[in-house]
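Reopening this one. Same input as before:
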Amino acid sequence: MRVILYCRVSTEKEAQVTSLKRQKTELSAMAENHGMEVVECIEEQASGYEIERTGIFKVLDYFSANKAEALLIQDETRLGRGNTKIALFHQLNRMGIKVFSLSHEGELQLSESDSMVLQIVGIVEEYQRKIHNMKIRRGMRKAVEQGFDPSSNLSNQHMAPGRERIDFPIEEVVRLRGNDLTFKDIAATLKGLGYDVSKATVHRRYKEYVSLEKEE
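Same output, byte for byte:
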């Protein structure tokens, strides 16, 4: 299993810096004992109440790119505190990332209250997605009734044989990803707009777009 080690302290005081080094040493030992492959160790000095942290963004980038499957931390407070902790655990859960901690000597076990909050957040988010998709479907039905032809979005159907590269608005994909929709949800949304595209195609085209943006 490929893992990311994440170490955090809140200040630059000498005792905190020592704690940062100790976290790295202990997490590295834990990974070795469990036969885990360490992709990278990310260290940062920042408040756990702040979600806008360079180290956290880097951690999420690794998982989004499928370069690691699990996160190792000293304890849940190293990832974050308060609402920030809940938000990050929710994001990792959605991405299917396992979290291991030294304090639990294995996979992290959230408190009953934190688990309940995450369940509520998940339920609310699911209903928000359903409402969003229902609005799109209703809008599409109305558009079709008024004469809109979804097949008109697929260009060059009469040209060379072979599978056509499906054309769809990548800007809309980027916008929806910015709203934390999964590629599965985005594909469903695009289908509602008349673009017959798979989750894999949406994911691949999104990665192509992001790569081009970085090069530019």
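So the earlier flakiness isn't reproducible anymore. For the record, Residues 86 and 114 are 7 Å apart (CA to CA).
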